[in-house]
Every structure is written in structure tokens, then in C-alpha cells.
Design a protein that fits this description.
single chain, about 100 residues, three-stranded antiparallel β-sheet, about 10% helix, elongated
């Protein structure tokens, strides 16, 4: 490991990117652009999803509890949900690239 950037930086993490994707009430899929990463050295974390609904009766209208995310390629994170629902859903993600 001597001479590698992780020693100079004191960390094995090269970059961290966080963001949100808002799926409108008719959308089941939407992509967000991120700074380029090497996909084989990158981890994608789902940080949660929410909607503006205030009660349990809104859960069946948002589809936000059926959300999946993926690192589609080196510059794209995609959020998908099973159905569009009647309310928008906000999806939060974190991309960590390692050396």
C-alpha cells in the first residue's frame, strides 16, 4: 500500500456524493447524473424515500415504499418504483467511490 493515494489521504474513500431523486406522481423511473466514478470501486446506498403524505392512508398512493435504486453506469443513479401512485416520492442516495 505504500505510495498509494490512500496512505497520503489517510482514507480508502476517494469520493462521496449524495443526492435526491424526485419521482412525480406519474413516474416509475427517473435518473440523476453524478460525477464520474469507477463502478467496480463504488458502493451505492439507499438512504430512504419519503412523500408529502402525512397519514398511513397515503402509503398506498405513493409507491415510495417499493423504491429501488441502481448505479446504472459511471455517471447515473436510477430510482425505480413498482407503481407511480398518486403522490410524488423523494428518494435519497449516497455514492461512495473507493481507491
Amino acid at each position: 500500500i505504500a505510495g498509494k493515494e490512500i496512505v497520503a489521504n489517510g482514507s480508502a474513500i476517494k469520493s462521496i456524493q449524495r443526492g435526491t431523486i424526485v419521482l412525480s406522481e406519474n413516474q416509475t423511473s427517473k435518473a440523476a447524473t453524478i460525477s464520474p466514478v469507477i463502478t467496480g470501486k463504488t458502493m451505492l446506498s439507499f438512504l430512504g424515500a419519503s412523500s408529502r403524505g402525512q397519514t398511513e392512508t397515503f402509503y398506498d398512493k405513493t409507491g415510495h415504499h417499493f423504491v429501488r435504486i441502481s448505479l446504472t453506469n459511471s455517471t447515473t443513479v436510477t430510482a425505480n418504483r413498482e407503481f407511480s401512485g398518486e403522490e410524488p416520492a423523494t428518494v435519497s442516495y449516497e455514492v461512495i467511490e473507493f481507491y
